[in-house]
Automatic annotation (TrEMBL):
Threonine synthase N-terminal domain: residues covered: 5-80
Domain named Tryptophan synthase beta chain-like PALP: residues: 101-419
Name of the protein in question: Threonine synthase
Residues that span the membrane, as ranges: none
Lineage of the organism: Bacteria, Bacillati, Bacillota, Clostridia, Lachnospirales
GO cellular-component term (any): cytoplasm
Keyword ATP-binding carried by entry: no
Domain of life from the UniProt record: Bacteria
A GO MF term: threonine synthase activity
Cofactor(s) demanded: pyridoxal 5'-phosphate
GO BP, one annotated term: threonine biosynthetic process
Entry keywords, A to Z: Pyridoxal phosphate
Amino acid sequence: MNLLYKSTRSEDVTVTASQAILKGLADDGGLFVPTSIPKLTIALSELAKLSYQETAFEVMRLFLTDFTDDELKNCINKAYDSKFDTEEIAPLVKADGAYYLELFHGSTIAFKDMALSILPHLLTTSARKNEVKNDIVILTATSGDTGKAALAGFADVEGTKIIVFYPKDGVSPIQEKQMVTQKGDNTYVVGIKGNFDDAQSGVKDMFNNKDLAKAMEEAGYQFSSANSINIGRLVPQIVYYVYAYSRLLANGQISNGEKMNVVVPTGNFGNILAAYYAKNMGLPIGKLICASNDNKVLYDFFKTGTYDRNRDFILTTSPSMDILISSNLERLIYRIAGGDATKTKDLMNALSSAGMYDITDDMKAELADFIGGYADEAKTASTIRDLYEKTGYVIDTHTAVAAAVYTDYVEATKDETKTVIASTASPYKFTRSVMEAIDGKYASMTDFELVDELSTIANVKVPQAIEDIRSAEVLHDTVCDTEKMQDTVETILKMK
Ligand SMILES: *Cc1c(COP(=O)(O)O)cnc(C)c1O
């Protein structure tokens, strides 16, 4: 059976999976969603025998029905290979009564690698299937993590070029170094003299520029997007929840059919939405616990049914969760509105005009499986320290937000359901915040001294991603004014 996709904001357009991947966003501004969520077709006991790659195939083939088995297997095998530093791809580590699903073993040591290592292959396969002749130019604005993961994913992928814009003075030194040392003849990294919003609106302007699109077409190019609203990023994320359950089963830590809870440190709502889709596929998931930092829009939403972004934007030690508009929540809204595109569109229009919306009581009732929680900065830091002192296991700041929320949840409910915490970044990516949480004495050390100290106290080898940037050569040094972003793109593509 062929599964089709439609926009969350209109009834009439349906596209295939490969077309949805190519387009990224629907023309009406909505997000592509499957017309129904397929059920797992393989028994859980059978799943427990499968490798990560085999699990990926069993899950993704149900969503990407216009891909042949060979096409999909080829994408999977190219993505989940020795770029990951463990054959398990996403190991499950037990510490202090919870199971940490380590999603940071890919090349940029954050969970974005789980989807961005396969998206380039899904995209080039989709281009071939739809007889797209142009080279695809991925334009990305980044505040740090997505840019590097997209660069690593698209580097040297035939038929693509990737151009990443980042705020020259708005990313951490480690994040900048990771990007400007990126290898690959098709990769371009540009610092802009502006902030992340300037980078993002500059990119949006280019997407919407009809003259530019025409000139690109004549030069044999077309734009596409690697951001988290692409269905080609969501589907690969469902896989690791199925895999986590199958590991618990294989290890005898859960019995067949017994429920597990999941806790997800959340920003744009992509990761936890994938868990929700997994539950809808029939995976025995109990509660979906959505963890926020001080930017607790989602916590308030689950509590009150009102989504309100009118508040101060707070900079925290978990920057990848510093976000007030969680784009992927639109896909959940669409589902709890019973697939009502008009209703979804009205709410999203209210969000962009008034910065807020209320859902109905009926919609709220559909959210019973979600629990919202949040952790402030002090609680996040003490969670890192306490877990380390108790077990020797070191987690990053984002994962610590989730761990803190989980502890509160267990205290409040006494729920003993086995629980998987999505561990979204290596502690080496946020070394300074992690080490200072463990002991204030680390404040005086340099970033790389802290890296070595972390390796000593955690007894974990420094990841290759960090070793690489210690001595790597800077390969990208382009900096431009915000108004010159399009000029820079045209120069890179030799269109002028
Ligand atoms: C992107 C990111 C998140 C948030 O994930 P969403 O899918 O946007 O909710 C959490 N932690 C880390 C380390 C991230 O990079």
